Amino acid sequence: MPEAGTRQIYAATLNDDGTRTALPGVDVIWSVAAGPIVGVSSAGLATAHAVYQDTPATVRGQWGDADETLALTVLDTLPDNYGSYAADSIEDGWQIGYYGFDNPNAAPGYDPFGTGDNLFKYIAGLNPTDPESRLHLRIARSTGTTALEVEPIVAGRIYAILQSATLDAEQWSTLTPHETRDTGAVRTFINATNAPSMFYRVRIQQQ
C-alpha cells in the first residue's frame, strides 16, 4: 500500500466446502500488529504513515474466536516527505542512511568539510560524512582527441560536460562528445577535437 495512503481490507470465513463468505467489516475487530500503520477503521480501511523506505507492516482482524493477521508492505512512493527531512530536495532514505533521524547536519546546505554541501553530494552520489569522497574530472589528451573522465557516476542522473575558452560565465557551452562510454563508476566523454586550451566543468542533473 502507498505511504500516507489507504487500503481497504476485507475479511471472510472459509467454509468446510472450500467456499468463502464475506464478513461485514464492522463485524471484525481490527488492530495494528506491527509497522507504520496509523490505524484501521471499524470498516477495515487501513491508513499508512509516511515512510523513508519500503517497510513491512501487519494488521490483525478478530471475529469471535478467530484471530488472523495480514502482512502488508508500505511503499516509499514519496521519497522526500518523511519527518523533519520532508520537502528539502534530498531523498529521506539518503539522509537517514548517513545521518540518522532528525539530525540538523542532514540539512541540504550543511558542508562541514568545504567540499560541497549535502544537496550537491546527494545529487553527485557522494558520501557526505567522508571528506575524501569527491567528484573527479580527469582530462587526458592524445593526438586529435581529448578524453574527459567523470567519477563517480550514479543511476538516475544526467551528466554533461560544459566547455569554455575563458572563465566568463556567459561563454560556457555543452560539449557534444564524439563518443561516451561507461566503465564501472566512470563515464568517459571523448571529444574529437583537441583545442590548444579549454576549461571544462561537469553538470549533473536528476532525471
Note down, in words, how this protein is organized.
By secondary structure, the chain is mainly beta. It folds into three domains: 6-74; 83-124, no CATH class; 136-206, Immunoglobulin-like. It is 7% helix and 42% strand. It has two helices and 15 strands. It has helices spanning 92-99, 118-124; strands spanning 6-8, 11-14, 20-23, 29-34, 37-40, 45-48, 55-63, 66-74, 136-142, 145-151, 157-164, 173-174, 179-183, 186-191, 199-206. It has a four-stranded antiparallel sheet, with no helix packed on it. A hairpin with a 2-residue loop joins strand 13 and strand 14. The longest helix is centred in the middle third of the chain and has 8 residues, at 92-99. The protein is elongated and about 85 Å long.
Using brief descriptors, characterize the structure shown.
4-stranded antiparallel beta sheet, 207 residues, 7% helix, elongated, 3-stranded antiparallel beta sheet, 3 domains, single chain, Immunoglobulin-like, mainly beta
Structural topology:
Elements (H helix, E strand, L loop, with lengths): L5 E3 L2 E4 L5 E4 L5 E6 L2 E4 L4 E4 L6 E9 L2 E9 L17 H8 L18 H7 L11 E7 L2 E7 L5 E8 L8 E2 L4 E5 L2 E6 L7 E8 L1
Antiparallel strand pairs: 1-6, 2-3, 4-7, 5-6, 7-8, 9-10, 10-14, 11-12, 11-15, 13-14
Main β-sheet description: 4 strands, antiparallel
What would you call the structural class?
mainly beta
Q: End-to-end span in angstroms? A: 25 Å
Globally, the shape reads elongated
How confident is the prediction overall: mean pLDDT?
A: 95
Secondary structure tally: strands: 15
What portion of the residues fall into strands of 2 or more residues?
35-45%
- Compute the number of helices: 2
What would the CATH topology of the largest domain be?
A: Immunoglobulin-like
Instruction: Specify the CATH class of the largest domain.
Output: Mainly Beta
Number of domain modules: 3
Q: Record the strand order, biggest sheet.
A: 9-10-14-13
Helix content: under 10%
CATH architectural designation of the largest domain: Sandwich
- Based on CA atoms alone, the radius of gyration comes out at 26 Å
Low-confidence stretches: none
SSE run: EEEEEEEEHHEEEEEEE
